[in-house]
Design brief:
- The chain has 102 residues and is mainly alpha-helical.
- The protein is 64% helix and 0% strand.
- It has one domain (15-96).
- The protein has 6 helices and no strands.
- The mean pLDDT is 91.
Length: 102
C-alpha cells in the first residue's frame, strides 16, 4: 500500500513533499463534500467524480503523514532540519488547512 513509505526512517523522506500530499488530500475531502452538497450540479457519471471518490479513500494516509511528522524524533532528522522553514509551514498548513484551502 502507499503508506509503506512511512515505515522508512525520516532521514530517507522529505517532509515538505509528504505534507504537500496531505494538504492535497484535505482538498480532496473538501471537493467531495462540495460535490455531495451540490449533487444537482455535479454529474455523478463524470470521470472527475469517480477520480475524486477514488482519491478520497486515501484520507487516512494524510493523517498518518501528519502524525509521523508531529513525532519530535522524526523532526530531529537531517531531512527535517535542513528544510525546517518550509517543513514547519507545510506541517502547520496540513494541520489547519482552512486558511489555505478556503
Amino acid at each position: 500500500m502507499l503508506d509503506r513509505f512511512l515505515s522508512f526512517p525520516a532521514e530517507y523522506r522529505l517532509a515538505f513533499r509528504e505534507l504537500g500530499m496531505a494538504i492535497g488530500l484535505h482538498a480532496v475531502e473538501r471537493i467531495q463534500g462540495l460535490m455531495e452538497e451540490k449533487a444537482n450540479v455535479f454529474d455523478k457519471n463524470h470521470p472527475v467524480y469517480s477520480q475524486i471518490k477514488h482519491l478520497g479513500r486515501f484520507a487516512r494516509l494524510g493523517e498518518a503523514i501528519e502524525k509521523s511528522w508531529l513525532d519530535p524524533q522524526n523532526r530531529m532528522a537531517k531531512t527535517w532540519t535542513e528544510h525546517q522553514d518550509i517543513n514547519s509551514v507545510m506541517l502547520a498548513t496540513s494541520l489547519a488547512p482552512d486558511g489555505y484551502l478556503k
